[in-house]
Amino acid sequence: MAESNYDVIVIGGGPGGYVCAIRCAQLGMKVACVEKRKTYGGTCLNVGCIPSKALLHASERFEEAGLHFKTLGIKCSAPELDLKAMMRHKDSVVADNVKGIDFLFKKNKIDAINGLGQIAASGEVVVGKHKYKAKHIVIATGSDVAGLPGLDIDEEWILSSEGALSLPKVPKSLVVIGAGVIGLELGSVWRRLGAEVTVVEYMDRILPGMDVELAREGKKLFERQGLKFKLSTKVTGAKTGKRSVTLTIEPAAGGGDAQNLEAERVLVCVGRRAFTKGLGLEHLDIALDQAGRIEVDDRFETGQKGIYAIGDVIKGPMLAHKAEEEGVVLAEILAGQSGHVDYNIIPSVVYTVPEIASVGQNEEQLKEAGIAYKVGKFPFMANGRARAMNAAEGFVKILAESKTDRVLGVHIIGPEAGTLIGEATMAMEFGASSEDIARTCHAHPTLEETIKEAALAVDGRALHS
Ligand code: FAD
Ligand code: NAI
């Protein structure tokens, strides 16, 4: 068994792992990153954020050309779908992105080790026949699809997000199980391309965890676009026939429907689970919580000295930018610096039309915590730029603490919400009050003006509504 010595070995080359490796290298450490997939970039670049956004973008343009161009005075014949070309676009975006990681590793002199990483003991990682030694080991093995009992994901009839990103043909009908982020994003893609999409959700609302008012508005707008919802409904089994899948349905929380559902394809997206299989944790002093996530302290260290964990494999939102933040902070801690992640200021975005974006606390959380707050709301309907773009649905909502006026949460549904949330995130990071935002000069005519107006509305002085 050949041996090599490193300061840090990162296991997993997703946004948590590869970013941690780069920051460690920047700080002068000798680093290796082990990845079992052929390409680096993890779930995010290979089968998650990037391919889904490529399809969301392409399908959005397809729908725009078919439905909305004529309102803007652009006459053209009905657009024709070339699904193969759309998939080629997605695949080339993924290929370019993963190539980018290879470049960054070379630039930062990080050793890329391909294979399954197993931890033999503190300081020892085994990949195939090779043993590698390191002062620190970082587990960044991410997450995997959570299935449903009674449903066998075969990626042909019953799909996970991975299969739903590569369908060879638009199904006539698609049942999406789970009205979370993946359900709404990929449900939107296939509806735009021509499938009849029904979303079955266990809870009595969509997007659990997001501000209720945002979710209610979202459901109304998605229904207008043609998505169908069956809330308070659970799927208990599936039978695959020659041309379709029949799902057995039962009423759930609050009492939904009990009629069976038949569809050409089924997408299961009921959440993801931390992935630790094959790491060899059984022999180590590393505890998992009830959800199977690795337990760490506030320095990301597990119970086993010198072994750390970050990203989807530990608690917190399963988001690429959260994993990246943790990767950077951990690298700095390993270099003897201090650092922490402010989990209250991690934005989340649903890339539908309109986009839905949130940062900080929502109204339900503030009520539960007994924090007195003021609300400022502003509709996109009253924003000149949104109207010029023919995209005036939705609103911005700012929640500020009654006593101090400090911004506690910002929730947006509307055009470019995912971009607009950046301003709100920055404001919160700097501890801004709603008055600070209201007093900041915003360019006209921009969508950002809705944020200024919502901030003015906290004090009842919005100018344009
Ligand atoms: P991962 O990206 O999962 O990377 C872990 C890597 O570790 C994998 O490549 C895996 O092969 C490797 N690995 C596991 N075990 C071993 C081992 N023993 N040895 C070697 N390698 C190993 N998040 C967003 O913020 N924005 C989005 O728009 C977004 N869209 C998404 C869309 C979809 C369809 C999905 C599924 C997810 C999306 N996410 C999005 C979530 C995002 O992909 C994850 O939060 C992010 O990838 C987590 O990063 P990570 O580094 O913790 O893990
Ligand atoms: P999710 O947690 O967002 O949504 C799962 C949904 O399924 C929930 O609404 C839940 O109530 C419902 N559900 C659970 N069990 C059910 C059942 N038996 N029957 C019907 N409904 C059921 O999970 P999702 O959509 O699978 O996404 C996984 C992760 O990937 C998320 O944590 C998300 O953060 C991340 N992601 C992020 C994206 C983004 O940032 N834009 C895009 C896609 C994924």
Features:
binds flavin-adenine dinucleotide; 25% strand; single chain; 13 helices; globular; seven-stranded mixed sheet; alpha/beta; five-stranded parallel sheet
Describe the structure.
32% of the residues lie in helices and 25% in strands. The protein has 465 residues and is of the alpha/beta class. A hairpin with a 2-residue loop joins strand 4 and strand 5 (124-127). Helix 1 packs parallel to helix 8 (320-334), helix 3 (49-68) runs antiparallel to helix 4 and helix 3 (49-68) crosses helix 6 (181-192). The mean pLDDT is 97. The chain binds flavin-adenine dinucleotide and 1,4-dihydronicotinamide adenine dinucleotide. The site of flavin-adenine dinucleotide has 35 residues, from helix 1, strand 2, helix 2, helix 3 and helix 8.
Extract low-pLDDT stretches: none
**By helix and strand content, what is the structural category?**
alpha/beta
Number of strands: 22
Give the cofactors and ligands: flavin-adenine dinucleotide, 1,4-dihydronicotinamide adenine dinucleotide
Helical stretch tally: 13
Percent of sequence in beta strands: 15-25%
Could you estimate the helical fraction of the residues in percent?
A: 25-40%
Main sheet attributes: strand count, strand direction, barrel closure: 7 strands, mixed
Could you say which overall geometry the principal axes of the C-alpha atoms support?
globular
| Average pLDDT rating | 97
Distance between the termini: 71 Å
How much is the radius of gyration in Å? 24 Å
